[in-house]
Amino acid sequence: MPDPRSRIELAIDQAMRQDRMSRRSFLGRAGRGGVALGAMMTLPGLIAACSPSSGGEGTTIEWANWPAYIDIDEEIDPSPTQYPTINAFIEQTGYNVNYVEAIQDNEDFFGQIQPDLSAGNPTGWDIISPSDWMVDRLIKLDYLEPLDLSLIPNLEANAADYARGLYYDPDNEHSVWWQGGITGIGYNPTLTGREITSFSDLLDPEFAGSVGLFKEMRDTFGLQLLDMGVVPTEATLSDVEAAQAVLLEAAEAGQFRGFYGNEYYDELAAGNLAVTVAWSGDVTQMQLYDNPDIQFVIPSGGAMRWNDNLIIPKGAAHIAEAHALINYWYDPVPATMLSEYIGYFTPVAEVPDRIQADADAARESGDTETADLLDVVAATVSPTEDQLNNTYEYKRLEEEEEAAWADLWLELRGA
Fold it and tell me: What sign for the dihedral angle of Cα 330, 332, 337, 343?
């Protein structure tokens, strides 16, 4: 097999001579090509130019995740996958991975898998990646396989302090952190004409028809509650009714373009939304790859802090293999490569320093463009003290309380 680094480097050199190359393609190829990011080439089997093995005894791990949540190389033939870190895992273990961007919204995905789980049937997935509050629900319903932490030694060795002892699963009995972030505001200053600082700015009639809210009830209600001075974990039903009344009045006046899942990304990047509820890592990617004008802000009243998780649903067909994949993501090398591409909060302690080292190496080699991009990413992949102090967790809703919130939410969505 020819040296994969030289082949990839030649591909990068050729691409850089072309008239058009997206920033997304550039950073992705630089990260996988060894031009500046030498640490990445220590990942065993990371050879995008070569076909990985066909899988251990036919085993295929079925993984449902959110869109825009993995590293991609569009130059790789999609067979077996366009995801270099997953290709490296396949090379290391012989297990195949069928990675599917199947989660657009926590509630929608829950609705897809709940009938099978309630009936005691397998869902067809070996790993799924829902958000923290949904994991809390799934644990309460006894819908998850327990984790064998002896099969995930990288968790204890490498997890960051903020990724440990989480409120819904403090001992990692059923879940581990995948990636995390903040729900705040994304906006295009060329369209808003001014700085956005608070959630109430989204209700300014000047922006009518170009404002986005999230389909996620806890995010949208949470931001409105914070704007009213109410900490979401302490919110009463009366508080939520008051928050809903504010948003309902605006919705009935035509303030909102729509309620979005992941599709808000394209709407904001394209200029169809001037301002919207947004996820922090998405805006980082947007700045790097799609529209550098887009800004992310934590509203003055505060924002919601969350993390998505790796969990194994009850009845999964490949439990041991799923553990192997979970353990893989707590290896600092693939974790760094992933973070350099997606820019969300990593659960692996060494990653920010590794990214900064890659940025420094790129700058020393004269590759200032890659270095500048990695400087941005290095600053986004772990929460700062200010972010931890001005961001808040979701409230743990009991069944009756959640039903009451949901009724208010459905009325708002219907407007």
Answer: positive
